[in-house]
Amino acid sequence: MLVFNQLETYLYLALLLFAIGLYGVLARRSLIAILISVELILNAASINFMAFNRFLAPHPAVGQVITLFIMAVAAAEAAIALSIIVAVYRKLKSINIEHATELRG
Amino acid sequence: MNFLGSFLSPQTIATAAFFLVVAMTLGGALIAVAARNIFHNVLGLVLALVGVAGLFLYLNSPFVALMEILIYVGAICIAICFAVMLSEPLYLPRPPRNVMKIIGAMVGAGMVFLFLALLTKKTHWVPAAERSTDWSITTLGHYLLTHYSLIFEVISLLLLVAMLGAMVLARGGRGNT
């Protein structure tokens, strides 16, 4: 049994990618770094969909379609997030999330 | 000679290439979260995404692998580069790392990792009884325009709205033209 023909390999790989992305979201303070970590998490989800599609699904087109939808939503999310980052920088002269406390009650 | 022949067999080469792709993915992801320079983070993300595209090749979908490179590396990473250029200059001194926060984040991510790894290990995965072997792009296109046509249209609408919203936000917000 080859290592790249097993479902578990891909699941653990996606899990590692997810954990790395989660660490980035929790630990980083720059908004752009957080966005990069979110992209890693979305890619972990895509790998999971593709792996289940390859090994378990009744029809192999379904997972590919869902992965394409994830990519489209990620592109929309990145566009919105980046414009928010630019707007925040213009307002606060910083993209450190610890400086963005204007909504604090 | 026999040893060399077994070393250069297709399975060995495929396995070696697979490990290379895995190393690119995980190493790129580590650079993307751990490096201090934000530009190195973006380059690490590019490396990780190319690795993920290689994984998609191993999962029998060259089309999705190409889309991954086209959309993620070609569009999203370039957009992030522009945001890096438009926001904080890189020569400014960065605040020192907060060790407690890093340890807390490591513990949190590690706990989630352990829980999900145990879940993956315990579960018994059952393949579907009847499996089609049709991987072609033609089938993908048929699915997109028949079964999933509503989602397809909604995604197009979402992209349009996101584009307009990004322009409005980046121009300076409401009532501030």
Could you walk me through the main structural features you see in this protein, from its secondary elements to its overall organization?
The complex is a heterodimer of chains A (105) and B (177). With 105 residues, chain A is mainly α. Chain A has a single domain (3-96), classed as Helix Hairpins, CATH 1.10.287. Chain A has helices at residues 7-27, 31-55, 61-92. In chain A, helix 1 packs antiparallel against helix 2 and helix 2 runs antiparallel to helix 3. The longest helix of chain A is centred in the last third of the chain and has 32 residues, at 61-92. Chain B has 177 residues and is mainly α. Chain B has seven helices and no strands. In chain B, helix 2 packs antiparallel against helix 3 (38-58) and helix 3 packs antiparallel against helix 4. The radius of gyration of chain B is 22 Å and the shape is extended. The relative contact order of chain B is 0.05. The interface between A and B is large, with 72 and 84 residues.
Main features:
heterodimer, A: 105 residues, mainly alpha, Helix Hairpins, 3 helices, 74% helix, elongated, B: 177 residues, 7 helices, 75% helix, 0% strand
Q: What's the multimeric state?
A: heterodimer
CA-based shape of chain B: extended
| The CATH top-level class label of chain A | Mainly Alpha
Tell me the number of strands of chain B: 0
Q: Biggest interface: chains and residue counts?
A: A-B, 72 and 84 residues
CATH topology grouping of chain A: Helix Hairpins
Q: pLDDT under 50 segments of chain B (min length 5)?
A: none
Q: Helix count of chain A, per DSSP?
A: 3
- Major sheet details of chain A: none
- Mean pLDDT across all amino acids of chain A: 89
Give the percentage of residues in beta strands of chain B. under 5%
Q: Helical amount among residues of chain A, as a percent range?
A: over 70%
Structural shape of chain A? elongated
Secondary structure topology:
The complex is a heterodimer of chains A (105) and B (177).
Chain A: H1 7-27, H2 31-55, H3 61-92
Chain B: H1 2-7, H2 10-34, H3 38-58, H4 62-86, H5 99-122, H6 137-145, H7 149-171
